[in-house]
Design brief:
Layout (H helix, E strand, L loop, with lengths): L1 H21 L2 E10 L3 E8 L5 E6 L4 E7 L1 E3 L13 E7 L5 E8 L4 E7 L7 E8 L1 H13 L6 E7 L16 H17 L4 E5 L9 H10 L4 E8 L10 E5 L8 H11 L1 H5 L17 H22 L11 E3 L11 E8 L3 H8 L1 H21 L5 H20 L4
Parallel strand pairs: 1-5, 10-11, 10-12, 12-15, 13-14
Antiparallel strand pairs: 1-2, 2-9, 3-4, 4-7, 6-7, 8-9, 13-15
Helix pairs in contact: 3-9, 7-9
The chain binds zinc ion (ZN).
Length: 404
């Protein structure tokens, strides 16, 4: 009897691993992010899966077959149609296969990759559907400003899409604040004669960090501001801080180094396939003189931003700090990263959410850009004062006009 029990125990033990391995894959959530030149579909998974992606024509479809999987997410929650994906459905062509079919509007180029779990995100399958014509158009539009005269300001709204950035106690996302302030700033710049804004990110989608650098370069930007809002555990911490790229070698400042590590992790959260971004310019080696010159002007820009942000809210550090931020990699462009405030502070979160305060922050960034261009001798002092006054007039007008 004892030996029979032992055999049963052994059999059970031997079977257990098999049971574990046969555990079914599960698609638990599906999200869709629409970028100007592609749409990204992200599937949350409970584990690593075997899958394949292929195209079917007449009508155009993208098919994703996932082995040993089921779906527990409701595809009806997706905001469809989007510019690429018209509709999405699923079925079981064989008992072991989960098939997801997307009806697409045009011949798109699919690309897919798996992301490992990180920062509270599970295994994810990312499927990017690129619109070839739109991608070409984007490249041309970005290059247009090459021939244009005037000052170009590249505005980089941090995070986006899969990457929410920091999240406030009332669930305000950093990616929303950064985009709102970026758009306000672009509005002021584009209303200023002789100036042009280029938004690196225009909506709620992720742009890889190195691609942000490439886009700033393509636009021949005269300066670049990357906009962020930080978070820490202590909820009473508040105030803005401004960063420039540190030269080679480790940064001594621990807090700045930790911040750079946090911001640089955006690619892993937002979803970047290795080798996704490759541009010879990114690895361009600059002469020492050139680099020093550019770091100096970034410093001047950073100081000027702190000076102006003082009028818009509290300041955390009264001098710029340095660290190795990937997004500040365009060393020939004076580039700074601005942490507008701490979204982790409930009072500051409320402020960051308010349209009025977003406008005030954008005005401060605009004023700082103007005074930077003045200091660099790119614009005349008198004309820029006239411009700031005209912006002030516009604001006055907007304030007096209830319909605006
Ligand atoms: Zn950030």
């Amino acid at each position: 009897m004892k030996s029979i029990m032992l055999i049963i125990k052994l059999v059970v033990l031997l079977l257990l691993p098999a049971v574990v391995f046969a555990a079914e894959g599960e698609v638990r959530d599906v999200r869709l992010w629409t970028a100007p030149d592609h749409s990204r579909v992200v599937f949350d998974l409970n584990q690593k899966v075997e899958y394949k992606v292929f195209r079917l024509h007449n009508p155009e479809r993208i098919v994703i077959d996932i082995e040993h999987a089921k779906i527990t997410s409701d595809l009806k929650n997706l905001n469809l149609p989007d510019p690429v994906v018209q509709s999405m459905r699923h079925g079981k062509p064989t008992p072991a296969t989960l098939r997801i079919v997307m009806d697409v509007k045009e011949k798109v180029q699919p690309r897919s990759f798996l992301l490992k779990p990180m920062q509270g995100k599970p295994y994810r399958l990312v499927v990017d559907l690129t619109r070839p014509d739109q991608a070409k158009k984007e490249a041309v539009t970005a290059g247009e400003s090459k021939s244009k005269k005037g000052l170009v300001v590249a505005i980089d709204a941090g995070h986006g899409g899969e990457d929410p950035g920091a999240v406030g106690p009332r669930k305000l996302y950093e990616k929303e604040v950064t985009l709102a302030v970026a758009k306000e700033l672009a509005k002021i710049i584009d209303a200023t004669p002789g100036m042009k804004a280029v938004l690196i990110r225009k909506g709620d989608y992720f742009v890889p960090l190195k691609k942000r650098v490439i886009l700033a370069r393509r636009s021949k930007a005269d300066l670049m501001i990357s906009i962020h809002a930080d978070a820490v555990r202590q909820r009473n911490v508040e105030g803005a801080s401004v960063y420039t790229l540190s030269e080679r070698g480790a940064t001594q400042d621990k807090a700045a180094r930790a911040l750079a590590a946090k911001e640089n992790a955006a690619d892993e959260i937002g979803g970047v396939e290795i080798d996704e971004v490759d541009d010879p310019m990114v690895n361009m080696i600059l002469g020492d003189m050139f680099r020093r010159d550019s770091l100096n002007s970034s410093q001047i820009l950073a100081e000027s931003i702190i000076g102006k942000l003082k009028d818009a809210g509290p300041i955390k550090y009264s001098t710029p700090k340095r660290a190795r931020f990937v997004v500040l990699g365009a060393m020939e462009i004076p580039s700074v990263l601005v942490e507008l405030d701490y979204i982790s502070n409930p009072a500051r979160e409320k402020k960051l959410k308010s349209r009025d305060h977003q406008r005030r922050l954008a005005s401060a960034l605009f004023g700082a850009s103007m005074s930077f261009f003045e200091k660099m001798g790119r614009i005349k002092q008198s004309s820029s004062q006239a411009r700031s006054e005209s912006v002030a007039d516009q604001k006055q007008f907007a304030a007096n006009s209830p319909t605006l």
